[in-house]
Known about the structure:
Blueprint: H1 2-30, E1 40-46, E2 50-52, E3 55-57, E4 61-68, H2 72-103, H3 117-131, H4 138-197, H5 205-220, E5 223-227, E6 233-237, E7 242-245, E8 248-249, E9 253-257, E10 260-264, H6 272-276, H7 280-316, E11 318-319, E12 330-331, H8 339-342, E13 344-345, E14 356-357, H9 366-373, H10 385-425, H11 429-461
Antiparallel strand pairs: 1-4, 2-3, 5-6, 6-7, 7-8, 9-10, 11-14, 12-13
Helix pairs in contact: 1-11, 2-4, 2-5, 2-7, 2-10, 3-4, 3-9, 3-10, 4-5, 4-7, 5-7, 7-10
Amino acid sequence: MATLNSAFNIATGALDAYQAALNVIANNTSNASTPGYTNELPQWQANDPVTIDGTSFGTGVSMTGAQSQRDLVLEQRIQQQTQLQQGSDARQTALDQIQSIFSSATSANSSGTSLDIGTSISNFFSALSQLQSNPADTSLRQSVLNAATSLVSAFQSASSQLTQQQNALDQQSATITKQVNSLTSAIAQLNSQISQNSGSKDAGELEDQRQHDIQQLSQLIGIHQTTTEDNSLTITTSSGALLVSKGQAFSLSTSVAGGITHISDFEGNDITSSLAGGGGQLGGILTVRDQHIPQMQSTLDTLAFDLATQLNTQNAAGSDANGNPGGAIFNLPTTVAGAANSISLAITDPSQIAAAANGSGSSNDTNLENMLQLQNQTIVGGETASNYYSSFISTLGSLVSQVSTENTAQQASLTQLQTQRDSLSAVNLNDQAAILENLQQAYQAASKVFTILDTVMSSAINLGVQTSVS
């Protein structure tokens, strides 16, 4: 009877183990489409054997739990690649929008004149050339004034749109910082649950949730992570600012200085510049906001200031249609900074175009000829004004192309890593169906053993009565 009881226990344990394993497979199947879910496999362990008269007898098997099929090294590689890809993607998106400011030479204001800086420079000198045919002609002088107005509008429009882009990126940086704080808080809570519930063991779906949150965090900001002895995580920014330590989150804070959002760590240290090179969407946005756009604004300011200064100087060297000394055509700030945004027209009367040399009469074009020669002189950064602007556009195009190439390569690498991860960790329904079928057959076999034992037990109790096994 003792032996039969042992057999019953083994069969019962087998049924329990297979049922638990079936539940694991069912859970996999139901979560096949759940973001971040990691495939789990039943873990088996032989029960301690029983030794009778020196002979060991097995006591069956137990299902000790489910083990998630994850590779932590691969997961970290994916996070690192995600940071790179998201950083270049954010840069590319912002730079594409900036390039669109300068890419169309056909954009025009309400009067139909071009707002493209390069075209506006050419149109201004073309208007001066036409005036040369008849310096006293009022309509030709008005054409010069209109071209000067268009040039001013082109500079102002480009500078204003760059500022708008910078402000939009600034707002995005503040929004992303809030999202980072929300995710780090969630990760810290999961750290506490994992360390309390599982210690150093696999925490299953809790780890899946944490891994999913870390993946989301990697899209936003560059991070490093280390695992502690209790299966918690310590997370810092790429530059080392603490974000999460076990069950505690350390929030980033924002403040505005000089019209720009600055980001500080929990100790109050300004880490904005270090985040710009750290990866993630925040890194890409800050790079464009704090590096690319200021460089572009500086280039436009230099072009506007140097070109307008030279034209002002040359106009002041002649006399206008009324015989008066010429003056400035454009109003400029005292320094280069902000020149593209603040440049404006200093004259409203076409007669104030100083085409003539001093004292030479309204039909003279000597000073106008000198003004026209500025078109081919290296008056801006060692280049002509048109070539300087062309170099700017070429540099911008090269930057956009370079970032686009980087992003394409990084996306390909990320896709490859994700494919490797999915082959290990994602739920494959075909595999689950095969495992399910095997477990069902094993369960049925264990049930059959239980039925046989029940029949044998009945025969033993009812001696002399024939029994059968179905």
